[in-house]
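Hi L., both proteins are below.
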Amino acid sequence: MTSDAFYQTVLDQASDTEAMLAAVKKLKESQDPQALPSLIRAFGFNNPTVGEAALAAVLEFGSVAVVPVLENVDGYDYGARAYSVRALARLGDARALDFLLEAVRSDFAPSVRRAAVRGLGRMAASLAGEQPQQVLTQLSQSLSDGDWAIRYASICALSDLAAVGDPTLKAAAHNLLQQATRDSEPLIQLRASVALQHPN
């Protein structure tokens, strides 16, 4: 039996929440990247307790988890996809940029879009080439989103970008934060002002 098949069997044998949590813990403790596809599969168990445990386990693998998450996104299960977006957003790796940009633009769930926007800022330090401009363009658009929480997440992401050493990136992020101080929502105005006064 291959390692991947073994890890899958460990998860398949779990029949209730307690057993599933024990299986997720066992897979995490293996510290074997081959356990990642099985952990990612647990995102789709329609059990928030197990999903959160699997998410925490995947995040412990760090950047090693990025490609397996991208390769195992369940496009048909909203819950599983949401966990994948959250994982990639928190890992902050530029290899997930295209995926997160697509989630910001087209996902129907505000919480998923918000996580994806936040993830754009977390990957600030690993962006290269045209990627910073792609992120700035998207964040500029997100500052006009009808959902104030998306606008708030955009300000947090811009604050991350402003903290990166590149002067051009800092200036562009600063300009967008200035615009956000004129938002119709007082909380957005306040968060933008704080970001300008206290860069990360």
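That was the first. Here is the second:
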Amino acid sequence: MTKSPKTIGHYEVKELIGKGGMGEVYLCYDPKTERDVALKRIRPEMHGIPLIRQRFLKEAKIAAQLTHPAILGVYSIEENFQDLFYIMPFIQGKTLKTLLASYRQSKASTIHLVRDFLTICHAVQYAHSKGVLHRDLKPENILIGPFNEVLIYDFGLAEYADMNEESFDDMPVLKSHPDLTRVGKIVGTITYMAPERILEKLDSVQSDIYSLGVILYQILTLKHPFKRQSVKQFKQQAQEEKILDPIDVAPMREIPPLLAKIAMRCLSFKKEHRYQNLKEMISDLEQYFEGKADWVFAARLDPKNPSDWELQETVVLKQTKDWAIYMLSSTLFPGNVKLEAHITLEKGSEGVGFLLGVAHRM
């Protein structure tokens, strides 16, 4: 086992706190600012590989450009012929992955974590506004601090929205460093990846939204929405993958219907059925916190499409056989009026809603 260095640059190394495919993270003391910092440097055995250095440097620059309270920032980037590292704030907290594991043991409610999840969504929305896709959103890349700090970190797989997977996946050097990528040249964590990323290698805002949906599902149920063993297995069974409603998966956890609906929409197989941007998703989450969770979005109707309004063609009043669109008045219907509807839902229908306007004459 390689011993940790005593110093890196002018930083005094306290301990190694993490190690990944490309880099290693140390808790260090900065004597110039007299504070603890987190230092991430490229692994020594990869220092001499230009393409690995390029990717590591790109990760640091992307994180440095994202100045948001819920994104772990970068103080500085230092590069020379011997070393490449960057400096971040040191936050003594726990990852969301660790917290969820503890909740599985205690069986306590996790609804309060939804507010932290909303903070995460705002941070990802900000990254998207800067043209950055995270591409590896998962609980272990989310840090929760002791003073309610909520931070996304590890932009090692991040790309600008106009890039594609080939920007790094097809590098020949990966053959000698298989821990830097995934089977089939797909980077990311398969259990958090949108179907189109696995099947077509396509990244988009909607693929990050899918990953957020997996995280929300886990917060609500403390379970994963599906089991994926490998890229090969998913490709063979993609169309058969079924995701159960969180309420059905964890009926004893009293999951609010609106939150379950948000998670399920994020996890739609086709990206056009998901939220098209974080603004839409955040709006629904804020609706929950405002106590307006009784109205749940089911489908968007197109007034120009007759098939969206077939219900009107079958709604009649029992005695008059007329359309059920009426202006009721005391002269037309003296006394109390009762409207009764008998509705038959076709296969695949999710529900029906009524809007009744009552005018009161003073």
